[in-house]
Structures are given as C-alpha cells and as structure tokens.
Amino acid sequence: MLTDLISRARAGDGEAFRELTEPHRRELQVHCYRMLGSLQDAEDTLQETLLAAWQGFGGFEGRASLRTWLYRIATNRCLNARRSAARRPAKAWDVPNVQPPEPTGLGEVVWLEPFPDALLEDAPLGPEARFEQTESISLAFVTALQALPPRQTAVLILRDVLGFHANEVAEMLDTTVESVKSALKRARAGLHGRRLGDSPPAAGSVAEEAVVAKFVRAWESADLDALVALLTDDVYLSMPPIPFEYVGRDVARRFCAGIFQASRRFELVPTRANGQPAFGAYLRGADGVSHGVGLYVLTLSDDRISAMSRFENSILGGFGLPRSLH
Description:
By secondary structure, the chain is of the alpha+beta class. Among the domains are: 1-83, RNA polymerase sigma factor, region 2, helix turn helix motif (Rna Polymerase Sigma Factor, Chain: A), CATH 1.10.1740.10; 206-325, Roll (Nuclear Transport Factor 2, Chain: A), CATH 3.10.450.50. It has twelve helices and eight strands. Strands 1, 2, 3, 4, 5, 6, 7 and 8 form an eight-stranded mixed β-sheet that branches. The longest helix has 23 residues, at 14-36. It is elongated. The termini are far apart. GO terms for molecular function: DNA binding; sigma factor activity. It comes from Kribbella qitaiheensis. Keywords: Sigma factor, Transcription, Transcription regulation. This is Sigma-70 family RNA polymerase sigma factor. Interacts transiently with the RNA polymerase catalytic core formed by RpoA, RpoB, RpoC and RpoZ (2 alpha, 1 beta, 1 beta' and 1 omega subunit) to form the RNA polymerase holoenzyme that can initiate transcription.
C-alpha cells in the first residue's frame, strides 16, 4: 500500500501525496513552531515545506523514511526563515490609562506567540530524546531556543527533542556527524542557566486546578494581595510584542496594581497553550460588552505562578475564542 502510494505520488497524483504526508502534518507544524517561536511563521513555513516536498517528490528515493525526508525539508526551510530579517518588530506600550513601572529588562524574542493545545499531538520521540513532551513545547523552552544560533537550534531539536540519530541529523543538514556533535554541545551549553520551567503540577490535576482557580478569583476581583500571594519570589512577566519584562514579586505587584487601579474588571475564559493554563482576557466596557484584550499564559511551579505572559488579542481566534463576550 505504501509503495503504491509513493509510486502514484511520484507520477503526480496529488491525492496520494496528501495521503502520505497528512499523518506528518501536525508534528511538522510543531517542529516549525519550536524552530521559529511564532505560530503564523510556523504555518507559513509548513506550507512552503509541503509545496517543496510535492514539487520535489520525484527525487524522493526512499533511502530515508518519508518522515525523515519531510523533516529535512522543514528544518532547512526554518533555517532560511531564521536567517531572514523579516521578524515581527517590537511594539510600544499601548495599554490606555496605565503607566507601567520601569521594566526590569527588554525582551529580544518579541515575535513569540503561544501554541494552542488543541493543535498539539504527541510527535513520536526517538530513544535518544532528552525532553518530555510538555517541557519541549513550553513557552520558556521555545523562548530559550530563539536565543540560540539557527543551526544549533535545529540540531538540539532534532537530537534532544525528536531523538533523531546524529548521522540522520548530519544528512538532513548536509554536514558531518562531528559538526552535529559540536553544535549540540554548544546548544546545550547555551540553554544552561536559562529559565526552562520548574516543577509544574500535572495538566488537569487537582493541584493545577487549585492554583488556576485562585488566580482567576484574584484577577477577576482585582484582589492584588491574593494575586501576589500566588507568585514566586522571582516571578517573570512578559508581553510580546511589547518588549517589557518584569522579574520579581515586588515589581510584579506594582505592574498589576497599575492594571487594577485603572478600574479594570476582567472576565477570564479558560483555554490551554504550550501545555500550560491560559485564558482569554476580556475587559468589561460601558456598553455591557466584554471585549477581548489579550491572552494570558501561566507557568506554574508547584503551587505558585512563576511566570505570566500576555499576548495580543489578535491571536484569540486561533484558540477558538471570540473577540467579545455579550
């Protein structure tokens, strides 16, 4: 059956090609997202990958598996995208009636976007994979990957996340096994010391639900003390594409106080992103309608919140969330 599909696809049968590649589509999208940190960029690069695979399918010789061949195309398309300068630029602070405190720092990965859990499917991991599925898609991990040089990012994902062997990665990247090993060593060193997440409770567990429920009550009631009590001492706040970053409970308190003092009353609609609890945030207007103002993604550490990222309202639709609540 597989041989017949390959023969038909080589002969130009588009339906056979789709049948061959569709089982790999979602995991390739996740791969492109890890490489690029942007859901939109990942989708664009996935489309380029499938087009290149279709146009070049006559050259697929079957020496490697179809999955490996597709990963080779996708990875090299992602490397091209990483090298280009066409990245989403930083934005100025644009929250009306709120004067933010001086940021602790300015983030460089302003193009970061969250990935809906609804699109996540467990990609097959090889025997050499070093990361768990949830860790390998977390916002902290994806952010850290963006700070690595492109080829180091590719090697680390292919080896430590997906578990491809060194010789397979070398063939994908048209390089030597020695170069792959060297790049992997440098990539691992580059990740060392970065915030890659702590010890989150299991997704959907009673422990996770307890923290999330406390956060929702505190945020919707603008209870600053209750909110701050949930934060770790080194809590990290970010808001791509606005580059402002805040580290530490004290500055987080000042930041959230400014939000709450603007007489803002929110409604939060739960969803999940990057294997983490997330919420569509809606601000109640004078017309009685709650308008979407963004998406919050929480990073949990035991029974506390160690990070919160806020993203623009333009991504709500990708999570199946409306732009307003009536």
